[in-house]
Design goal:
The complex is a heterodimer of chains A (about 100) and B (about 160).
Chain A (H helix, E strand, L loop, with lengths): L12 E4 L7 H12 L8 H39 L3 H9 L1
Chain B lengths: L5 E2 L1 H8 L23 E6 L28 E2 L2 E7 L2 E6 L2 E17 L9 E22 L10 E3 L1
Antiparallel strand pairs in B: 1-7, 2-3, 2-6, 4-5, 5-8, 6-7
The chains are: A mainly alpha (about 100), B mainly beta (about 160).
Chain lengths: ~100, ~160
């Protein structure tokens, strides 16, 4: 006889914001957590190395996410300027 | 009226019937590959909804409405099922309703593919623990770490 257990569902977290989007740190942390999971039963030295690597990856992700946001902003500003919306483009540039 | 977090009992039966396919991406199946996965959606509900393990399918009753939200919810991005030791598990990418003004107490993940037997069948019910609100902002559901202890759906 075999026992098959479909566990209770995992627990989700809901993050919400008001009048702004989630910060880049949030997305960088989510990306890092999805890519790298550090087990709690590894040798302490391995765990420390993994955590240091994870932190480094987090910085890299954060940097390139910011670059992507800047590029997207550049596209939007160019489009707004092309269509004569200088004031809106300036607001976007200052954000 | 309450939302009780659970895996739908009907879903457990339907796993054994081979009705749900969580594989990511597209492509036809063969005798040795799983082929394309089904499309799964997340619909959001108010605190007036009644959902539990006995929920069998998507329903629009007490589904939320608001800026940035479309009835029947939003599609999830499947992560192809894998194993960790003796546990099989699957995951979804986080889901965000951007620039939204909505309030929800819970959610239903369901199979929205049109294949016979799978259409709108419930997978699991999520209870957020309290009303969650976004106001001209982001409303994001973050799925747990995809491991044998925490993944959103596990078969051990």
């Amino acid at each position: 006889m075999f026992g098959l257990s479909v566990s209770q569902t995992g627990t989700v977290t809901v993050a919400t914001t008001s009048n702004k989007g989630l910060p880049i740190d949030h997305w960088a942390n989510r990306a890092t957590d999805t890519i790298i999971s550090v087990g709690n039963q590894s040798h302490p030295e391995i765990t420390e190395q993994a955590k240091a690597y994870k932190e480094q990856i987090n910085h890299v992700i954060k940097h390139y996410m910011q670059e992507a946001i800047n590029s997207s902003k550049t596209d939007l500003i160019a489009e707004l300027l092309d269509n004569g919306y200088e004031e809106i483009a300036e607001i976007l540039r200052k954000m | 009226m309450a939302i009780t977090q659970a895996i739908s009992t009907s879903f457990k039966k339907e796993i054994l019937q081979g009705i749900h396919n969580f594989t990511s991406g597209s492509g036809g199946g063969t005798t040795t590959t799983t082929g394309s996965g089904n499309t799964f959606k997340t619909a959001l509900y108010t605190s007036s909804a009644t959902m539990s393990a006995s929920t069998t399918a998507y329903s629009s009753t007490n589904e939320i409405s608001g800026t940035g939200y479309t009835a029947a919810g939003a599609a999830l991005t499947n992560v192809t099922p894998t194993t960790s030791s003796t546990t099989a598990l699957t995951d979804f990418a986080d889901l965000t309703w951007s620039s939204s003004t909505i309030t929800a107490r819970g959610a239903l993940i369901y199979n929205s593919s049109t294949a016979a037997g799978s259409a709108n069948r419930a997978v699991l019910i999520l209870d957020f623990g309290a009303d969650k609100t976004s106001t001209s902002g982001d409303f994001t559901i973050q799925f747990p770490t995809a491991d044998a202890s925490n993944a959103i759906i596990r078969i051990a």
